[in-house]
Specification:
The chain has two domains: about 120 residues, Collagenase (Catalytic Domain) (3-Layer(aba) Sandwich); about 55 residues. With about 180 residues, the protein is α/β, with parallel strands linked by helices. Helix 1 packs across helix 2. The model has no long low-confidence stretch (mean pLDDT about 80).
Length: about 180
């Protein structure tokens, strides 16, 4: 079976992550039938993972979860992948070395590997802006937001007036019907 990445919200290319996971599977001795959910961390240099400890005799396809910050290094990602794959083959924290448990183990199998970023997520070469330019940009952004919110509020008020008018007409209709009897 192949390694399935069901979701990749990280800043790194899916094909490169799949290759890195294959290398980690080979290094750890895990089968290549894993499913991965890879998310993006809001904090730039944070990486975390979650994997279910494997069970003998049962085939379970619970995914391995990874959350990768966009400033994480190849070594950090490789160490975390190896750590989570160890869980998936049945190794608990007490069975790991301190380096494996803390994701500080050497990963010679990942040396020379190139982990590329997704093209659409690569940061543009931003020109450094002065504090005054940044302030003006933020004020313009907030003004646009305030205008959009005002427009929404006016629309909601108009809808409420239409609903009120409809129900007033119904009340008048039924009042007249009651008086006509």
């Amino acid at each position: 079976m192949k390694i399935e990445i069901t979701r990749n919200a990280s800043a790194f290319r899916t094909s490169d992550l799949r290759k890195l996971i294959r290398l980690a599977c080979k290094a750890v001795g895990a089968k290549r039938d894993k499913r991965f959910h890879i998310g993006a961390s809001r904090r730039h240099n944070v990486i975390s993972g979650r994997a279910y400890i494997g069970t003998r005799g049962k085939v379970e396809y619970k995914p391995v979860w990874l959350t990768i910050g966009k400033d994480c290094t190849l070594e950090e990602i490789a160490r975390t992948i190896a750590h989570e794959l160890m869980h998936s083959v049945g190794v608990s924290h007490r069975d790991m070395t301190p380096e494996q448990r803390k994701c500080t183990q050497p990963v010679p199998w990942a040396e020379g590997f190139e982990l590329r970023r997704k093209k659409d997520l690569e940061p543009a070469k931003a020109q450094s802006e002065t504090p005054a330019e940044r302030g003006a940009r933020l004020v313009a952004k907030r003004e646009a937001h305030a205008r959009a919110m005002l427009k929404r509020a006016i629309t909601r008020r108009k809808r409420a007036e239409s609903v009120e008018k409809k129900w007033r007409e119904k009340v008048c209709y039924y009042e007249r019907r009651t008086l006509d009897r």
